[in-house]
């Protein structure tokens, strides 16, 4: 016989296993909180902005073609910033115990569409270190790009500054706990339905009807010991 599950059966299962689902959800939130607060190292970010623009004399005006040229150079500059040609100098100046590849993984370069401003960000477990690295990268790039590209069109628009009480950019504790709550809820519901599916014991008349495909024509009510003693005493009289 083909089995079907009604909404009533679903609600009954959820209500029956609500304790399990609640415990699973709370346990997932607690685990996520422990990992986020005590096990994951907080990462801090420092950002500097670089303006890509030709240096002009007062008599010169910036043309549209020059702006388009600068915009096209930004993609090239983004690669140069993260290249060993720049990072090896940064590592030497700051005496960092990192390779160029490792330092490159800490750096992110981006710019808004049709913008001549390039944002360079560095993430590190120490905010002061991240600030020093990103400022040094910007300064070295500004100096080296003159020899590398034979142009002098880079200016530091907004250097990174040290902050006394910086806020970490990761981990996002609230988001981690929210995701854990959803996963815990899903796992709890899954376990609840799995246990219900594996439970083959017969508990009600409906279970008997479904199992035997026969109608129930009578029930035998349970008799307590007290009632049995009363009936026994009446018979003796």
Automatic annotation (TrEMBL):
Q: Which family is this sequence assigned to? A: Belongs to the CpsC/CapA family.
Which keywords annotate this record? Cell membrane, Membrane, Transmembrane, Transmembrane helix
InterPro entries noted in UniProt: Bact_polysacc_biosynth/exp, GNVR, LPS_length_determ_N
Q: What is its main location?
A: membrane
UniProt-recorded Gene Ontology molecular function terms: protein tyrosine kinase activity
The residue ranges of the Polysaccharide chain length determinant N-terminal domain are: 3-94
Q: Which residues cross the membrane?
A: 20-40, 177-198
Q: Where in the cell is it found?
A: Cell membrane
Q: How does it sit in the membrane?
A: Multi-pass membrane protein
Q: Which residues form a coiled coil?
A: none
Which terms in the GO cellular component ontology are assigned? Answer: plasma membrane
Looking at the record, the residues that make up the Tyrosine-protein kinase G-rich domain are 129-194
Q: Which species expresses this protein natively?
A: Caryophanon latum
UniProt name for this protein: Capsular biosynthesis protein
């Amino acid at each position: 016989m083909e089995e079907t599950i009604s909404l009533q059966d679903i609600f009954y299962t959820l209500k029956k296993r609500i304790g399990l689902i609640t415990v699973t959800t709370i346990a997932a939130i607690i685990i996520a909180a422990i990992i986020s607060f005590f096990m994951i190292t907080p990462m801090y970010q420092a950002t500097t902005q670089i303006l890509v623009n030709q240096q002009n004399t007062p008599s010169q005006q910036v043309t549209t073609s020059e702006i388009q040229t600068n915009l096209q150079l930004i993609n090239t500059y983004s690669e140069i910033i993260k290249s060993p040609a720049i990072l090896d100098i940064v590592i030497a100046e700051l005496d960092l115990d990192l390779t160029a590849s490792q330092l490159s993984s800490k750096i992110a370069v981006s710019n808004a569409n049709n913008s001549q401003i390039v944002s360079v960000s560095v993430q590190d477990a120490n905010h002061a270190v991240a600030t020093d690295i990103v400022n040094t990268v910007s300064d070295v790039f500004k100096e080296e790009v003159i020899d590398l590209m034979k142009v002098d069109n880079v200016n530091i628009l907004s250097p990174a500054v040290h902050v006394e009480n910086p806020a970490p950019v990761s981990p996002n504790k609230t988001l981690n706990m929210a995701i854990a709550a959803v996963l815990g809820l899903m796992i709890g519901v899954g376990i609840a339905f799995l246990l219900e599916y594996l439970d083959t014991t017969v508990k009600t008349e409906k279970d008997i009807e479904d199992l035997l495909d026969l109608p129930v024509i009578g029930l035998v009510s349970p008799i307590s010991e007290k009632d049995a003693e009363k009936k026994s005493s009446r018979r003796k009289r």
